Amino acid sequence: MIRFLLGGLILAVAGLAAPAGDLPTGKDDATPAAMRFEWRSEGPESHCGNQCRNWISAVGAIKDDTARQFEAFAKTHDVRGAALVLDSQGGSVLGALALGRAIRPLNITTTVGKIAVLADGKDGITRVAFKPDGACESMCAFVLLGGVRRYVPAEARIRVHQIWLGNKRTRAAELSYSAEELVLVQRDIGRLAQYTIEMGGGIELIETSLRIPPWEPLYALSADEMRRMQLTTVDRLFDAEPVRERSASAAAPADAAITPVQPAQPASLATTSNARIAGAE
């Protein structure tokens, strides 16, 4: 599944890499803005009354320190059980895995979309509405796995790609690579596989991403693929707990959403490596 053709050098590796959104798209070659977290209240009040939910808006590129930014954010808001709305072009491998692990213990629902700001409510709080047309690309798909419940609206887009050395992603097929650089990439592939299984995701997510080198358009996952990969585990955003994995003697129906029981949380990868693999850096 991993092939190295040393010539022009093509390095095809599994995982999710710098998405098209991370590549230069304008003449100024601007770096994508880092992910920001904002606490928002649902509205309008006439629609939800005293049942208005709180949302966490997560927009922008995933950096190495994004998990630390989220942890600081979580200390100032009651995020447990909230819905995290992702709209991201991806970014750092280690940053995404650390963020997913920071999300998991907080009983958070992850989804993909946009938060549209409405007029201020009567209580002086800025109210928002959830819009399902967001995008979650590259390493963002792994962050999505961090949710205890995961919901991808039909209008949302999940697109995947290979991982790549961040400073070589724009000329990936033209440059040469050292043995040390290949080691870094393979090490992060292993981390991605471990994390995917740990979070209850399907290894098909990595296998599918393996096929797409960074010079090709990102691959858009279908609804069936997302279900098989466990990127989506509920049919509606605020469904009850997903059906847990059952014993062989009590098999779940074929259309049941299954999320394996969470394993113990290992230490964050953010402190274990200085690798700079693909993303928005």
Radius of gyration: 19 Å
Q: pLDDT under 50 segments (min length 5)?
A: 1-29, 240-276
Total DSSP E strands:
14
Strand order of the largest sheet: 7-8-3-4-5-6-10
CATH superfamily: 2-enoyl-CoA Hydratase, Chain A, domain 1
Largest sheet: 7 strands, mixed
Distance between the termini: 26 Å
Protein architecture, described:
By secondary structure, the protein is of the alpha/beta class. It has one domain: Alpha-Beta Complex (2-enoyl-CoA Hydratase, Chain A, domain 1), CATH 3.90.226.10. The chain is 22% helix and 20% strand. It contains 7 helices and 14 strands. The chain has helices spanning 45-48, 66-75, 93-103, 140-144, 179-198, 204-210, 223-228; strands spanning 3-5, 10-12, 36-42, 54-59, 83-87, 109-112, 114-120, 126-131, 135-137, 149-151, 157-160, 219-220, 243-244, 258-259. A 7-stranded mixed β-sheet has the order 7-8-3-4-5-6-10. Strands 9-11-12 form a 3-stranded mixed β-sheet. It has a two-stranded antiparallel ribbon with strand order 1-2. Helix 2 (66-75) runs parallel beside helix 3. Residues 1-29 and 240-276 have low confidence and may be disordered.
Notable characteristics:
2-enoyl-CoA Hydratase, Chain A, domain 1, 7-stranded mixed β-sheet, alpha/beta, 7 helices, single chain, 20% strand, 281 residues, disordered N terminus
Task: List the topology elements.
Layout: E1 3-5, E2 10-12, E3 36-42, H1 45-48, E4 54-59, H2 66-75, E5 83-87, H3 93-103, E6 109-112, E7 114-120, E8 126-131, E9 135-137, H4 140-144, E10 149-151, E11 157-160, H5 179-198, H6 204-210, E12 219-220, H7 223-228, E13 243-244, E14 258-259
Parallel strand pairs: 3-8, 4-5, 5-6, 6-10, 9-11, 13-14
Antiparallel strand pairs: 1-2, 3-4, 7-8, 11-12
Helix pairs in contact: 2-3
